[in-house]
Amino acid sequence: MTARGASPIPLRHRDLLPVLLVPVVALAALPLVGSFSTWVTLTLAGLAMGMIIFIIASGLTLVFGLMDVLNFGHGAFISIGAYAAALLVPALAGFLHADSLFYNLIALLALIALAMVVTGVLGYAFERVIIMPVYGQHLKQILVTVGGLIVAEQILVAIFGPVQIPLTLPTAFRGSLVFGDVAIERYRLIAVVVGLLVFAIMLLVLNRTRVGLLIRAGVENSEMVEALGYHIRRLFIGVFMAGSALAGLGGVMWGFYRELLTPAMGMDVMVLAFIVVVIGGLGSVGGCFIGALLVAVVANYTGFLAPKLALVSNILLMALILLWRSRGLYPVAKR
Amino acid sequence: MSLLGGVILSGNPPRGMALMLILLAILLGLAFAPVLFPGMEALNVAAKICYFVVLAASYDLLLGYTGIVSFAHTMFFGIGGYGAGIALYNLGPSWGALVLGTGAALVAAVALALVIGLFSLRVRAIFFAMITLAVASAFSVLASQLSTFTGGEDGRTFRLPEVLRPSFHFTAGPFTASGRILAYYFVFAASLVLFLLLLRVVNSPFGRVLQAIRDNEFRAEALGYRIVIYRSIGNCLAAAAAALAGVLSAVWLRYTGPAVTLSFDIMLDILLMVVIGGMGTLYGAVIGATIFVLAETYLQNVMAMISHATAGVPLLPVIFHPDRWLLWLGVLFVLSVYFFPLGIVGRLWRK
Amino acid sequence: MSEASPLLNLSGVNTHIGPYHILQGVDLQVPRGALTMLLGRNGAGKTTTLRTIMGLWHASAGAVTFDGADITAWATPDIARAGIGYVPETMGIFADLTVRENLLLAARSGPIDEARLHWIFGLFPALEKFWSLAAGVLSGGQKQMLSIARAMIEPRKLFLIDEPTKGLAPAIIANMIAAFRELKKSPDTTILVVEQNFLFAKSLGDAVAVMDNGRVVHAGTMAALADDRDLQHRLLGLHLDQHQ
Any CB–CB contact under 8 A between A227 and chain C? Predict the structure, then answer.
């Protein structure tokens, strides 16, 4: 029998404060920006960019949260995904040039599928060959994955050459939808939709499936999950492949966003991805989502309001958040 | 031998015949470079080896001895280069300007290292590594943007004090040396002194505590050592050494700019140098830096030959193309992390 | 005690953790259908023994046999699947998962058996009350109950339980004793419990083994140990003797 009488059930403490960050920042920027239509453009650009960064960073944070593996080579998969898609572009020329949203989307889907398959498979190889031998040794992981990144980038340059490759947007993705004096770029809308879809699917898998349950439990205490009878190491490789595939997907979206491919494109985005992962909390998909949107939106606003500050705005943002919550927005309750 | 081993090499001479010979060869090669390897290109390579040895050794102090993984080390290298460069540019080519610039650079580097060091205590090591990556890229961008001060993307070209200029001629009996040769020996001597100083630091009681902390933080703390203080000092010393390496690079190149000091490529380069050479040994930095700089300059020629020779075969000429020398170093780097965790020095060192 | 072969048998088990030689030749038999208490001072190697059985640390020498199979080198998930439910000293609760999700995870073969769940709620009413809440909000005692409930959610051949009463209030310990008595009623239930609380051990144990310095120094029935005060002092109050 319990020592006290019937004790009240504690309110489920939902930590919603970080969720408010993005809308608050967006609204605060409105008076600063002045013009509503400019604000819409900036916000949408931020959301679109944020979604793409989320897609890329989500794989990174899950892999670290679950496997305790720090993969500095993640950037390689971004580039590889984009370049793999570029290989298929000529074959899909008809679909891409057609002025039909439907055909363009099909082409985009095909490109994404190819990128994800290629990076997923390479992710498997990367995990088995490069990472597995150094499980549990953080320093070596960092070194080895950085090495892998260098080698991968060099191979890309060897195959494709060091020059930039343009990647033109499919016809129906170009241009904007105009409402009064507010212009909404089509591709940015599409990026937002894709990002939301990915987020929704991730949440669904994590919260409603047994695999998701295993992942969430494993992020907290993978040893206990094993003691409950699950071969969680087999899950690791699956998650790693998924993370790499997501990086590939992000690479394709990023390539179209910038309309340009360079061998170092993965590296550039990766710094942003790391910042997002740190802000969101290692292992938290929700934190990653908020962090990505926040970083992108803030970068766009400062790019407009104080251009010189724009590129360091991420660092300042990261410092501020770490001062508030030193382990990120939603730190995972580690063992 | 005991004078050499005990005093000059701070009681930590390289053990093993092979290692000793290699280091001796490097030392002699650098000391007599103008004579042994005539020509400007060879001298450039030698000077580059000199200040990169200091830079790599300072990174080894951070990574191998203090156990801190940081991707922001080139920041301090840049601070040193810019300090000297901006001073010589704005205040004219005098020794006073050089000293002033170096002093300012040291202060800035140590201050920044302190800030970063204190911040690193609030967060986990993994976080810290990622944060340094972000900070370094931000710093690099900042340097490019503050162009009125730093010269932006193009950097700053400047002239050296008269004695070190190429046009200067120094005659002592039958020997004539141009200012360039004097500049080389300035760089060489300074690098040698700095390296020996670093050797003294890691073999001092302070250095031993650092290693104890690196190996078993828990126990070190239990023994009463304030980890915070030791790590911060280690951080600052490494930063100061890197800044001085930057000053030397500015003196030699007569130029400073983001591409030669702050680029992430350089960060990867010193990472490769330290790991391939051997972490936590300092001598590893010497070997690593030498191999790297030599490879960067001469390996490309070798690869060009192979590339030509395999012209008909698919893919091979592309992979052996001289521009891909970094690919091979990357592969070597990955292999050495697996198979030679203690680097080349580890292989040759006999306990 | 049962005459049949022991369900779990350790012979000559040595375990090294890094440079430390923790288990130095453990011989232990856990009889079927009974509750065996594993007692001993702090640092005697009790937790290490359980972890070695579960394969979380691998024995450097010796053999662990479970239900006739040699599980010494098996991987932890396989050992669990052989029918062992493990309740670690740290409880191993997933704080971000709800009580329901914690139990669901432990029910390997699919959905939770309603009848069994009802039985568990009877023993641990708090779990029903906090069913949909994150396990992190539970009190220490409730977390311990959840950890034990997780092991009980499906039939197991062997329960390995590490210090279930550590840090719990006496009233909750009484609750725990009642729950264990209920658990013992199930047929073919074999339990190995590591404990420091001798009174708890005395009220539940059928067999007892005492460890010291990485070895089992005494094994026998709980009744015999409970009767022999000298033996108790010798085995469990060793440090007291040294001061006398």
Answer: yes
